[in-house]
Amino acid sequence: MSTRYAIVQAGAPSPVINASVAGFLQQAAEQGEAEVVGVHGGANGLVEKNFSTLRTDRPDLPAMAAEPGAVLGAGRRPPDADELERGVEHLTGAGVQGVAVTGGNGSMALAAGLSDTAARLDVPLQVVGIPKTVDNDLLGTDRSPGFLTAGTYAMRAVHALGADLRAMAPLEQVRLVEVLGRGVGWLALAAALARNGEHDAPHLVYTPEAPLTLAGFFPEVDRVLTRHGHVLVVVAEGAVPELTGAEFDAPHPGRLLRNGAVRDLAERTTDALGLRTRPEVLGMVQRAASWLAPERDRTDAWQVGAHAAHLLHQGASGLMVSLEALDDERSPSTCSTVPLDEVAGRTRSVPYPLASGCPDVPADFRSWWNRLSPVA
After folding, report:
1. Distance in angstroms between the alpha carbons of the first and the last residue of the chain
2. What is the Cα–Cα distance from 57 to 26, expressed in whole angstroms?
3. Could you give the angle at the alpha carbon of 56 between the alpha carbons of 50 and 61, nearest 5°?
4. What is the pLDDT at residue 108?
5. What integer pLDDT is reported at residue 246 of this predicted model?
6. Angle at the Cα of 54 (from 11 to 85), degrees rounded to 5?
7. Do residues 176 and 111 share a domain?
8. Mind listing the pLDDT tens digit for each residue in 198-218?
9. Which of 122, 128, 18, 129 is nearest to 64 (CA)?
10. Which of 289, 302, 332, 372 could disulfide-link to 23, CB 3.0 to 4.6 Å?
11. Within 13 A of 119's CA, how many CA atoms are on the CB side?
12. Is 165 in the same domain as 202?
């Protein structure tokens, strides 16, 4: 019987997720695996057996790697125990010996669930995880493919918006820029890399780890306005609990979360301080900006996909591929592994001490970023 693997793009898309699929397919071809099954639509594709055969010898893998979106379609909902059983049965019924699941902590929970279910059913199905999330909130890896691209977009956008606001300051005093980050502030910190001098934007930065309170926010805006004549604020989407409420803390399968808290915040700022305030929501373009992907991010994504195929070929299971820390910007990316049950459903928060509203990026974060994607 020939070897057959499957790959699932679970969770939301990312700017480099297709590079992981391309790397997986190339490695499978080099190993001589006969077929790879693509599971379409994330967890739904497993439950509904929405499978197709993917060619491992296709010549357009570099072009696939550069495509935005998710070539297999994405999905974001946790299957229940019965659905996990169905997914395992569909995979093994299709002759699949091993499956790779791409995504973040929720997707790693899916992978762990498939692994546990296969063990309980005494089915010889190997399961490995491929890290991917623009939020960079996966434990067990130095970085998550997708974050460098999304962070670069946020940083460049804030730099440009800061220059625009400075020019418009006589007419517009405050600009509120919302970046992704429901539970962690990694992208807000990346956006804050735009600040290289005392007067540069952003002037205030808020993260879920150091959130914004309305009572403290308005005096801070007034203080910065007095000093600079204009104020640009970076706000992670989950950093204003007074406006987003419990919605951002609750499980959210099958429904869209309300972003755009800065729109409400802008109205409140105008009412409280009498200032012209404009909200800017960078939104999903942060996770779609594949054209902006740094070489390191695309290389990382390709390598974790290839390493997942290698692990399956070696008979491994119950592991997530991880990326090792770099010594300097010239170091090559290298992969290792971490047990799925150590990362599934868990969140990697920003580990640096952050002060609410503080615009200065921690030195350790800037050094880490420069090893990955040097800032000009």
Report:
1. 53
2. 7
3. 100
4. 97
5. 57
6. 50
7. no
8. 899 999 999 999 999 999 999
9. 18
10. 302
11. 9
12. yes
Average pLDDT over residues 93-97: 96
CA dihedral 291, 292, 293, 294 (to 10 degrees): 140
List the structure tokens of 349. Answer: 């928060």
- Residue 11 has a pLDDT of 86
pLDDT tens-digit readout, 162-178: 999 999 988 999 999 99
* Rounded CA separation 301/331 (Å): 16
Which pLDDT tens digit goes with each residue over 284-308?
999 999 999 999 999 999 999 999 9
Q: Look at the chain and report how many structural domains it folds into.
A: 2
Contact 74, 9 (CB under 8 A): yes
Q: Which domain holds residue 59?
A: 4-146+293-342
CA distances to 174, 232, 357 from 277, rounded to whole Å, are: 5, 10, 17
pLDDT band at 252 (very low <50, low <70, confident <90, very high): low
Q: Of 155, 149, 187, 157, give the one whose Cα is nearest residue 68.
A: 149
Q: How far apart are CA 126 and CA 54, in angstroms?
A: 19
- CATH of residue 209's domain is 3.40.50.460
Beta bridge partner(s), residue 35 = 4
Q: Please state whether the predicted TM-score (pTM) of the whole model is above 0.85.
A: yes
Q: Where does residue 150 fall: left (phi above 0), alpha (psi -120 to 50 degrees), or beta otherwise?
A: alpha
Measured between alpha carbons, how far is residue 193 from residues 16, 37, 207, 363 in Å? Answer: 22, 41, 14, 11
> In sequence order, what are the residues at sequence separation of 6 or more whose Cβ sits closer than 8 angstroms to the Cβ of residue 279?
175, 176, 178, 260, 262, 263, 265, 266
Residue 348 per-residue DSSP state: -
* Token pair of 217 as six digits: 């926010």
Q: Which two tokens stand for residue 150?
A: 């999304």
Confirm if 71 and 63 have CB atoms less than 8 A apart. Answer: no
CA distance 221 to 173: 10
Do 57 and 169 lie in one domain? The reply is no
- Whether residues 363 and 248 share a domain: the answer is yes
| Average pLDDT of the residues in 259-269 | 93
Q: Does the pLDDT of residue 10 top 50, yes or no?
A: yes
Within this chain, do residues 184 and 64 fall inside the same structural domain, yes or no?
Answer: no
Q: State whether 279 and 192 are in the same domain.
A: yes
Same-domain status, 255 and 298: no
The verdict on 138 and 267 lying in the same domain is: no
